[in-house]
Amino acid sequence: MGKFSRQTVLLATAAALSSGMGAASFADDMTLAISMRSLSNPYHATFARGGEEFAKSVNLPFEVLVTEGNSEKGLADIRALISRTNGNVCINVDPNDSPDAATIVDEAKAAGAYVVTQWNKPDDLHPWDNDPNYVAHMSFSGVGTSKEITNALIDAMGGEGGIVAIGGILSNVPAIERKLGMEQAVADTDGKVEILDFQPADWNETKAFEIMQAWLTRYGDDVKGVWAANDSMGIGALEALRQEGKAGSVPVVGIDGTEAALSAVEAGEMAGTVAWDPMWTGGMGLSLCHAAASGAIDITAEPHEHREFYGTGIVVTPENIAEFRERDTSFDYGDYWAKSTGQIQYQQ
Amino acid sequence: MKTVLELRNVTKEFPGVRALDSVNLHVGRNEVVGLIGENGAGKSTLVKILAGIHRINEGEMLFEGKPTSFRSPRDAFNHGLAMVFQEQSIIQTLTVAENIFLGREQEFLRFGIIDKRSMNSAAKVELAKVHLNCEPSEKCSKLDFAARQMVEIAKALSLDGRLDSDIVILLDEPTSVLERREINLLFEIIGELKAKASIIFISHRLDEVLEVSDRIYVLRDGAVVHETASADASITGLHEHMVGRQLDHEYYRENKQRSSFGDPVLSVRDLTIDGELRNLSVDLAAGEILGLAGVVGSGREAFARCLGGLMLPSSGEILIDGKPVKLNQPNQAVDSGFGFVPSERKSEGIVSGLSVAENMTLAAGKRFSRFGFIRFDRERTECQHWIKRLQIRTPSVKTPMQSLSGGNQQKVVLSKWQIVGSKVAVLDHPTRGIDVGAKEDVYELIREMADQGIAIVLLGDTLEEVIGLSNRILVLRDGEVSAQFDAPAGAKPDQLDLISNMV
Amino acid sequence: MASINLRALAPIGVFFLLCIVIAIFSPNFLSVSNAIRILNASAIPVVLVMGATFVILMGSIDLSIEGIVALCAVVTASLVLNDTTAANLGMWAIPFAVLTGGMVGAINGATHVYLRVPSFMATLGIGFVCLGIATAALGGFPVRIADRGFRALTLGRTLGLPNGIWVATAAVLVALVIQERTRLGRYVFAIGTDEVTARQSGVPVERIRILVFVLAGLFSGMAGVMAAAQLGQGHALIASGRLFTTITAVVVGGTALSGGVGSVLNSVVGVLIVVVLTNGMVLMGVPPFVQQGVQGFLIIVAVSIALDRRQLEFVK
């Protein structure tokens, strides 16, 4: 997904820049928008592209809003967009922080706009309590997928030995869920696999590199596997192993399915990664939102598992990477829940 | 007479140096005590001990008969020992009133908020004591050096009436930047103060110490070598005690004054600086010393700073060797052949953190480097040559500049411009705050510079100095040249003639 | 004078003390292989502090480090054999990337000097511009390096040590020569200590300021090249966290933020302290949730020991 999306993302950026003009010229049309943290990471860049593809398919104006990690900016941009379009807008938003979702939903309800949220929202905020404007919430099962990728790591290790684990920012929900899934998978081995150490590297490649170095000193050859809560940190650890000539001999897993990680899987240096489907979350989120807003479906009549649902995270390993590369990535914008893997469950 | 402050057998040692050697000294109530000594004689150590900056190794200090040791200058101040330092303690961004009562705002607090009006009116009272006519609400940065000094003295005087104990005011070189008129005023104030306080007066000007003090201590090599009532003392006698040798040759080296000069070097044509200077024209030849006389604000400082590239002229022309030069930036002035020795040596003349050698060659970077790399051998040889020639007292060329005495620092500054080969040296108070012995060295040096063909523009520390050193004197008043005097050796103009054109 | 020199050695004392404490808890720390790992992890920060030290000695600050490193890493990755562009310059990519860093440094300096923007704001803004360019040019995707020869810059070994360590050593030598033996180095100290006097003595203060920012940019550029080689890619976020480490290392090493006091060698020790601290935290098994607190505390202790406060009239 790396190559083809680059120029379109640039277009998306340009679209965002010229959004003022765009909105004016399409005054009667419904506007479609994506809001997210930043364009400087592959996941979000592809997420925006998914939204853009859908907008093209229905020939509606499209905008990208970027929070740059700042909740205030994110909310202000959304507010401005809603008032500019008089509420005639569909927004597929990945909120910067969970509480932001509540504010966004309130704004949308007040103006008659429609929203779909991704990943972050408070546990007690539900689409069905905010009919019809809060269309749906989409996420991925952090615990479930993490468990799956950890099992892939354990398989690559031959079922036993010590692993070291690199976590994300300690207070992030995905970081907590992924760590939990990893711990559950290790517990299921009945002591054959042991977590030697867990260190947070704040999603940061360089930090993961330095921590991996220290682990090599502390545990040496006792490290039989490396688990990382995302691919960036996984690559950081892998490069630290490479420095010692151990790339490929100690399996590493990550999560996100970045191109770097997929290539490492192909090269046999990583034992696996989880590929999300940001093209799908970006496109299908908007499609569902647009369907509800335009009256194509009566969203209020849909069951709860169609309002809060998990997408499909594909565990990619050296065994299935070729297959994964060849898979059919197209999907039908009308088949809203084909890739759903069930209603969202909340951890207590 | 009751003794207010007393030092008994006070000894202070620093690693390798005995700065004070069982010093005995007392100050009586309502007495003005003069304290003189060469640089390094122990004056500043003594002051720092009184102020609580240094601790005594042996002996004791008694204040009002009780053994005392102040923790800081602030602590000393709160107990009644106020100091007016050479390096001013005025904070320029605060107002006059805020400076006077800094740290003592409680007096003016109304529900935790400073009542500016009552603070300003209280400040007005203190300013009246020093006859300084300025608004208490004025920022100190707007005042000139002399006025700031007066504010500092007013600050010390504000203790009067606010404290039960006796008050001792220590004046450390208070006259070095003051003009004669202001000095007279200061002495008048000191006369008035005597009724309320005791005063320690430190100065390198022996005549002033004689004039203002009741009793005088002479320090040399950390010890009190002489104590005398002023009535029984003479300048020559004090000088001998101070330097330990006789004043055996003429002070301003008049015998070395040149009478013939080289080619004209500097020409100034109708130089005007708005609000400072009007239509100044003057020519200066190689080896000639031009003295500038005038009160503060007469335009002579502005002229000097203009030559240093620190102040932009509004109109007029400056020519070096007949060619017009632009002096918009200090480096243009340096490249054109000007060497500026600023009056504020500590903040403008030297770079404290750098070594002696680095200071000496700072302006002559190109000469001591090749492709940007420093030629250390060449630099060391040159610096050692100057250290020897100017008798700069320094352990080595690598010694940090701040560990040299004021006089030696000034010699380094002067050598800096000789090394770079300046054609015109602009000396703004080159002997400010340095002692008699070092002063003579500086005079010697100025004569030598003239012999080498350097044209010199001199703003003297005293009128006497300007007359003694110069070949020619320009008197400025209100930004204009009011008179010009020739001052050949043996036929120097009279001070009174100059003064009548200054005011 | 002797006391000043002793004081300058304080960071080295802090470093050895730290090593001893960590070694008591974790004997592995003293192994040769761990020493090499620490040096290797120090390589990029060391190159960065070389530039940052000159800027700080001059009394300014350079906050564009992360931006320049990211931009230069992207430039490097785009010019060697990679998955995004058709370029294949091999090692020739290095001078291009380093010069890019120098150019950004020149813009930093010129903005600071000619527009009279405080270096804090000028470099902060230009750093963001660099990040913006790196983001916009790639649309958030990394450029992945396929050139094995180029990656040998950090992955390869010479005389048993990773090449990155040699590159860093060379950077230190260059910086040391500039500091000790050139006019530029001397002027930096003069300006940092007393800009007024330096200016009055004819030192071309503006030109020197710009030159120092160029120098810092060149070092940051080189660090960008090394980061690209180490991680095998270039992207906008590759340098995140570098700025804090760099400034911390310079200060921990004993260079005063007020300018005029310090040395590039001090900063090398500062980097070692910071890197050993990270390494030691993991080795000693300090729980992750207290690590940041302990690290922050130890950094303050290190600075308070290393800084000669008697030389500083005020601390801001």
What features would you describe in this structure?
The complex is a heterotrimer of chains A (348), B (503) and C (316). Chain A has 348 residues and is α/β, with parallel strands linked by helices. Chain A contains 12 helices and 12 strands. Chain A folds into 2 domains: 2-140 and 277-311, Response regulator (Rossmann fold, 3-Layer(aba) Sandwich); 142-275, Rossmann fold. Chain A has a 6-stranded parallel sheet, sandwiched between helices. In chain A, helix 1 crosses helix 3 and helix 8 packs across helix 9 (231-243). The two termini of chain A are 36 Å apart. Helix content of chain B is 32%, strand content 26%. The mean pLDDT of chain B is 85. Chain C has 316 residues and is an all-alpha fold. Chains A and C meet through helix 1, helix 3, strand 7, helix 8 and helix 9 of A and helix 3, helix 6, helix 11 and helix 13 of C.
Short description:
The complex is a heterotrimer of chains A (348), B (503) and C (316). Chain A is α/β, with parallel strands linked by helices and 348 residues long.
Question: Mind sketching the topology for me?
Answer:
The complex is a heterotrimer of chains A (348), B (503) and C (316).
Chain A: H1 2-17, H2 19-25, E1 31-36, H3 42-58, E2 62-66, H4 71-84, E3 89-93, H5 98-111, E4 114-118, E5 134-139, H6 142-156, E6 161-167, H7 173-187, E7 193-200, H8 205-219, E8 223-228, H9 231-243, E9 252-253, H10 259-266, E10 273-275, H11 278-294, E11 308-310, E12 314-316, H12 321-326
Parallel strand pairs in A: 1-2, 1-3, 3-4, 4-5, 5-11, 6-7, 6-8, 8-9
Antiparallel strand pairs in A: 10-12
Helix pairs in contact in A: 1-3, 3-11, 4-5, 6-7, 8-9
Chain B: E1 3-14, E2 17-28, E3 32-37, H1 43-51, E4 58-63, E5 66-67, H2 73-79, E6 81-84, H3 96-100, E7 109-110, E8 113-114, H4 116-129, H5 145-157, E9 168-172, H6 180-193, E10 198-202, H7 206-212, E11 215-220, E12 223-229, H8 235-243, E13 264-273, E14 277-285, E15 289-293, H9 300-307, E16 315-320, E17 323-324, H10 330-336, E18 338-341, H11 345-349, H12 356-360, E19 369-370, E20 373-374, H13 376-389, H14 406-420, E21 424-428, H15 436-451, E22 455-459, H16 463-469, E23 472-477, E24 480-486, H17 495-502
Parallel strand pairs in B: 3-10, 3-11, 6-9, 9-10, 15-22, 15-23, 18-21, 21-22
Antiparallel strand pairs in B: 1-2, 1-4, 4-5, 7-8, 11-12, 13-14, 13-16, 16-17, 19-20, 23-24
Helix pairs in contact in B: 4-5, 14-15
Chain C: H1 2-8, H2 10-25, H3 32-57, H4 65-79, H5 93-114, H6 119-138, E1 143-144, H7 148-155, E2 157-158, E3 161-162, H8 163-181, H9 183-193, H10 195-200, H11 205-231, E4 233-234, H12 242-252, H13 264-284, H14 288-306
Antiparallel strand pairs in C: 1-4, 2-3
